[in-house]
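Quick review question:
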């Protein structure tokens, strides 16, 4: 089930700096597209994915470099995605801390009503590309669809390049969900790009998303104003009668989005091949340098231990929030930053609802639960 209005969230703070290719992931689970329900089993080991230096030449797919400073390496591109509240902001901050990388937060190039396709005005563009005026003779023999694709890429690339500064080798954007939904289009426009998918326990993403929507007073995520108001008073203001964190409709939507994103993840992995990687939030918590260093190597930027450690320290929870990990208020964008917080909020009814959904079996397939006895 694709994401619904209930799971769409308001943008996070853009000014602040949220935690692996085919056949290998940086946390040790096989990320080869799986059959069936999209399960991601968890065997250890495997070779590290090759760096971008092997056969990766942006100039071959980005010939238009007019105006780019002489002596600078033309930048490559990467994109970060995943289900909502799966650690995408953390990974963005980690990579933004690298001196050779920069990433924007939630550009929403695809998926919204205002996206790159209607920036272009494709119908009029194709009228131009197929025109018979002699002055357009240079387009003869060119596929109009290829021209439209080149124009769409140029629009996105021009916006991304506005973040460039001397020394930057990779420019990226983090947008949850949409780069999974539009993976085929993203690959069509940026076949050489790298796609990073963030993975987290679906129960923890549900808790985090519920507090995020309550804290931002996003009532549409709770089905009715009455259901939202009861939870807002209790969980945000500390007033009123005790009530569960989730309305039934809300948890159903959260579980469905998480399961949908995992299915789409398998499709995206098949499309991007060696240009795709998963990063698990839980492994990033347990061994941040051990995850970040091979990720940097895979991206083709400086990846020595000192550089990886600086990225981790710059994007540490304590430095970003001014709090110790596990401390926070319901309104904080970065709330607690821990694993397994769901045990503090799931009622028996919530557990049964999640287990009975497709997401319940997926928890077992991904190694987040041994069986249904949780």
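Suggested answer, residue by residue:
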């Amino acid at each position: 089930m694709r994401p619904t209005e209930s799971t769409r969230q308001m943008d996070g703070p853009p000014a602040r700096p949220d935690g692996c290719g085919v056949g290998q992931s940086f946390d040790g689970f096989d990320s080869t597209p799986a059959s069936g329900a999209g399960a991601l089993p968890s065997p250890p080991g495997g070779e590290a994915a090759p760096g971008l230096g092997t056969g990766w030449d942006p100039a071959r797919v980005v010939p238009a470099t007019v105006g780019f400073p002489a002596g600078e390496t033309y930048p490559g591109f990467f994109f970060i995605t995943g289900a909502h509240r799966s650690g995408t902001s953390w990974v963005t901050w980690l990579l933004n801390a690298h001196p050779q990388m920069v990433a924007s937060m939630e550009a929403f190039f695809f998926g919204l009503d205002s996206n790159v396709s209607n920036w272009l005005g494709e119908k009029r563009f194709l009228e131009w590309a197929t025109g018979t005026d002699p002055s357009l003779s240079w387009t003869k023999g060119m596929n109009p669809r290829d021209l439209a694709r080149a124009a769409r890429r140029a629009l996105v690339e021009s916006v991304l390049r506005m973040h460039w500064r001397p020394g930057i080798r990779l420019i990226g954007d983090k947008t949850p969900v949409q780069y999974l939904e539009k993976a085929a289009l993203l690959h069509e426009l940026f076949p050489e790009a790298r796609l990073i998918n963030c993975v987290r326990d679906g129960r923890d993403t549900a808790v985090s998303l519920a507090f995020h929507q309550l804290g931002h007073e996003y009532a549409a995520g709770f089905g009715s104003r009455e259901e939202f108001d009861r939870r807002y008073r209790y969980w945000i203001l500390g007033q009123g009668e005790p009530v569960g964190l989730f309305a039934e409709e809300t948890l159903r939507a959260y579980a469905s989005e998480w399961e949908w994103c995992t299915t789409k993840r398998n499709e995206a992995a098949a499309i991007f091949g060696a240009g795709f990687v998963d990063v698990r939030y839980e492994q990033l918590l347990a061994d941040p340098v051990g995850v970040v260093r091979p990720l940097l190597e895979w991206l083709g930027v400086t990846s020595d231990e000192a550089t990886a450690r600086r990225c981790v320290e710059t994007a540490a929870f304590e430095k970003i929030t001014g709090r110790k990990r596990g401390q926070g208020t319901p309104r904080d964008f970065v709330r607690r930053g821990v694993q397994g917080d769901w045990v503090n909020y799931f009622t028996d009814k919530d557990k049964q609802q999640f287990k009975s959904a497709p997401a319940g079996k997926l928890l077992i397939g991904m190694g987040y639960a041994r069986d249904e006895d949780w």
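Why it works: Confidence is low (pLDDT under 50) at residues 8-66. Residues 219 and 357 are 24 Å apart (CA to CA).
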